[in-house]
């Protein structure tokens, strides 16, 4: 089953009227640049749907962009918290479709990468453009309850958040709960593959950029 066939099947099976990741705008100050970003995102998605002869999915594509000046410079964790509240308010079982399992965080760096990258219909073959895809379920390690002995760490000195990775933004865990995603692969490709075990199968640790 192709990406678009699976999305269409989900819409019909669950009687949903919308698909697509929720986007959190975390950079403000220039609405024209944001509008250009969204135009590029829309153009890339439309092109991908046309390749699959699935233009019929465009009317139901809904990014549900969350805009709030209080989000300016918001962290991944802040956005995850807001997304969890959005999912809870929707009344939809959180793991029913990728729409309720993952969201997109767009900060100044991600916005700049897309605006400076190859314009549609050129493909981004070198992962120059990206957005941040956030896993709703990810949780930080709780040092107070972490089973050090069960994981082979010295109970006295083992640091649960240190998995031997190179530090990135202060963390040495492998799975940071988010990843940079090629902006040309957001939908329908990544939206579809994030179902089931899609996160673990496609995860790339930042600063690498995933391109499913």
Describe the structure.
- By secondary structure, the protein is α/β, with parallel strands linked by helices.
- The chain has helices at 3-13, 31-51, 76-90, 108-116, 186-193, 198-202; strands at 22-25, 102-106, 130-135, 178-182, 209-210.
- It has a five-stranded mixed β-sheet with strand order 1-2-3-4-5.
Question: What is this entry, summarized?
Answer:
With 212 residues, this protein is of the alpha/beta class.
Radius of gyration: 18 Å
Helicity level, as a percent range? 25-40%
What low-confidence regions span 5 or more consecutive residues with pLDDT below 50? none
Task: Please give the number of β-strands.
Answer: 5
Shape: globular
Largest sheet, in brief, is:
5 strands, mixed
Class computed from helices, strands and strand pairing: alpha/beta
Beta-strand residue fraction: 5-15%
The largest beta-sheet arranges its strands as: 1-2-3-4-5
Terminal CA distance reads: 16 Å
- Average pLDDT across residues? 93
Order of helices and strands: HEHHEHEEHHE
How many separate helices?
Answer: 6
